[in-house]
Design brief:
Enzyme class: oxidoreductase
GO molecular function: NAD binding; UDP-glucose 6-dehydrogenase activity
CATH superfamily of the largest domain: NAD(P)-binding Rossmann-like Domain
CATH topology of the largest domain: Rossmann fold
Strand content: 5-15%
Structural class: alpha/beta
Catalytic activity: UDP-alpha-D-glucose + 2 NAD(+) + H2O = UDP-alpha-D-glucuronate + 2 NADH + 3 H(+)
Shape: globular
Pathway: Nucleotide-sugar biosynthesis; UDP-alpha-D-glucuronate biosynthesis; UDP-alpha-D-glucuronate from UDP-alpha-D-glucose: step 1/1
Strand order of the largest sheet: 3-2-1-4-5-6
Family: Belongs to the UDP-glucose/GDP-mannose dehydrogenase family.
Oligomer: single chain
Length: about 475
């Protein structure tokens, strides 16, 4: 079976490398010549743990990269994994999807049945749109010589290879029998983990071989397209909820890690996505929630919970700034160290991160901001060129002569720091841990005045405040 992946971003490069490692001849197509050149040199065009090693092992063997659509003619399955950015009004920009569909249509073979797969996150009805474009460009009949189906990606940046080889679920949206048969054949090795021996040496992660196999679920195309949006929006709501609970914990003297743990023990709720933060951000949640809400408003079925979660998330960004102000008072003349510019660890993705909002607001209030991130500084700099920040080569340099360190992204590098030495380099050793990942007693022994989110204890309250709570 011949596979083609359109786009060499997170979806295309990871999907292409994985299927090539499983023995399928796989071609990644991208109009960006520099990305194609990187792939052909054995380098990943994105930062993703383990991906460069996997690409290097299979490029030129079962994995190929090109700017030409010639491989489409002999493809059995074509994955569309191009970008779908949001417009300012929250609607999705499908120009890259349309361009890919047009190019596929011009190259599609008349002599074979081809399955075209929307892998990108796209609104309900996009499969029909892609199908109509391909029909127009190719002169072929949809559902006879080709079909367009939905197979949404659920890759977590920083864990993408683990998620592609060991997914918890695979969703196929199609009612076309031949297409469903072909996708079952393609995913059979992943569901049953067959042919993993050669690829396993490149796994950077440990995986339990007794873990449950992936759930394989088939539905109609429109339901499949909605599943990705609905799932991400639900997770965003869950994060916003625990962040609101954290703010209430600070007001009442409760301890949010304990509250979250107790909630997570309920099997109906679960412990995942109950970690407190300065707010959700990145390339998926802000985009997907905005697009999902915009669609619901267009069709008169506004998702009010999603809308409120988005507003709550913006409030959380602002709340972090308020806590910094509360500690430092006036920010004029203050120097603040920000550790972490990406929306999560193990990625270089600095798109629409909480750091961009928080840093912009701190500068607006008069602070000098020094920043560090193990992987995300280049992208952050390119996306936020208007922000006057000082980029530092190390966290120690970023903390030098500052009034506060604010930990935004819980990179393992930061958790392993010699914090005693960091404290000694600061003007005032204040540490604000927005992820509650550093043990506050250890930080205090290191010389810091430590603060997290939602960590106030009942004993911190005055007697008069405690009396009010108990009456």
């Amino acid at each position: 079976m011949n596979i083609v992946c359109i786009g060499s971003g997170y979806v295309g490069s990871v999907t292409g490398a994985a299927f090539s490692a499983l023995g399928y001849k796989t071609t990644v197509i991208d109009i960006n010549e520099s990305k194609v050149a990187l792939l052909n040199s054995g380098q990943s065009p994105i930062y993703e743990p383990g991906l460069t090693e996997l690409i290097r092992a299979y490029i030129g063997k079962t994995l190929f990269a090109t700017t030409s659509y010639e491989a489409v003619k002999s493809a059995d399955v074509i994955f569309i994994g191009v970008g779908t950015p949001s417009r300012p009004d929250g609607s999705v920009d499908l120009s890259y999807i349309k361009a890919a569909a047009g190019s596929i249509g011009k190259s599609l073979s008349r002599d074979r049945f081809t399955v075209i797969v929307n892998k990108s996150t796209v609104p309900v009805g996009t499969a029909d749109l892609v199908s109509s474009i391909i029909e127009k460009e190719s002169g072929l009949r949809a559902e006879h010589q080709f079909t367009v189906i939905s197979n949404p990606e659920f890759l977590r940046e920083g864990y993408a290879l683990e998620d592609v080889f060991f997914p918890d679920r695979i969703i196929i949206g199609s009612v076309h029998h031949a297409a469903k048969d072909r996708m079952r054949q393609l995913y059979n090795s992943i569901v049953y983990r067959e042919g993993y021996e050669a690829a396993a040496k490149y796994f950077y992660f440990k995986h339990n071989p007794e873990a449950p196999q992936a759930k394989y679920f088939e539905t109609d195309t429109k339901s499949s397209e909605m599943i990705k949006y609905a799932a991400n929006a639900f997770l965003a709501v869950k994060i916003s909820y625990i962040n609101e609970v954290a703010r209430l914990c600070e007001s009442l003297g409760a301890n949010v890690p304990d509250v979250a743990r107790g909630m997570g023990m309920d099997s109906r709720i679960g412990e995942k996505f109950l970690e407190v933060s300065s707010g959700w951000s990145g390339s998926c949640f802000p985009k997907d929630t905005a697009e999902f809400l915009h669609t619901s408003q267009q069709y008169g079925s506004e998702l009010t919970l999603v809308k409120t979660a988005m507003q709550s998330n913006e409030r959380m960004h602002a709340y972090v700034v308020e806590k910094i102000q509360h500690r430092l008072k006036s920010l004029h003349g203050k120097s603040i160290c920000i550790l972490g510019l990406t929306f999560k660890p193990n990625t270089d993705d600095a798109r629409k991160t909480q750091a961009s909002y928080i840093i912009a607001r701190l500068i607006e209030l008069g602070a000098h901001v020094k920043v560090h991130d193990p992987q995300g500084m280049e992208m952050f700099r390119s996306l936020n060129s208007s922000l006057s920040v000082e980029f530092c080569k190390s966290p120690q340099e970023a903390a030098e002569e500052t009034d506060m360190v604010v930990l935004l992204t819980h990179w393992a590098d930061y958790q392993r720091l010699d914090w005693t030495k960091v404290a000694k380099r600061m003007k005032h050793p204040f540490l604000f841990d927005t992820r509650n990942v550093l043990e506050h007693h250890e930080m205090e022994r290191a010389g810091f005045q430590y603060e997290g989110l939602g960590l106030r204890k009942y004993q911190d309250l005055k007697v008069s405040e405690l009396t009010k709570l108990l009456v």
